[in-house]
Amino acid sequence: MGDTMRQRRRVAITVETSRLVVRRSMSQRHFWCARCSAHVQSVALEDAAALIGVSTSTISKTGAGEYHFVEEAGSALICLNSVILSIDKRKHD
Ligand SMILES: [Zn+2]
């Protein structure tokens, strides 16, 4: 029971952190993600790495299997949905 409470609190913190990062991200923009089949928010690779708590090279190595990449004007952006899914997955590992 206590675990569920703690988990819920952690999710709330994650969502709040995501909002903060997204708000200050210059790359924030909606784009069409074919993997999500929806318009989603994107974050810069560096912001995605900071959110997940890994290095940018880890994300590059993990690649498109887990992250939804989009290239725009030469900069790597990542679908925010895939970032949040990844945070979630890591929590349960
Ligand atoms: Zn996506």
User: What's the N-to-C terminus distance?
Assistant: 19 Å
Proportion of strand residues: 15-25%
Q: Compute the number of helices.
A: 4
Assembly form of the protein: single chain
Low-confidence parts lasting 5 or more residues at pLDDT below 50?
Answer: none
Strand line-up in the sheet with most strands: 1-2-4-3
| Distinct small-molecule ligands in the complex | zinc ion
Protein structure class: alpha+beta
The helicity comes to 40-55%
Structure, explained:
The longest helix is centred in the N-terminal third of the chain and has 23 residues, at 2-24. This protein has one domain (2-92). It has helices at residues 2-24, 45-52, 56-62, 80-92, and strands spanning 30-33, 38-44, 69-72, 75-79. 55% of the residues lie in helices and 22% in strands. A hairpin with a 2-residue loop joins strand 3 (69-72) and strand 4 (75-79). It contains 4 helices and 4 strands, in the order αββααββα. The structure holds zinc ion.
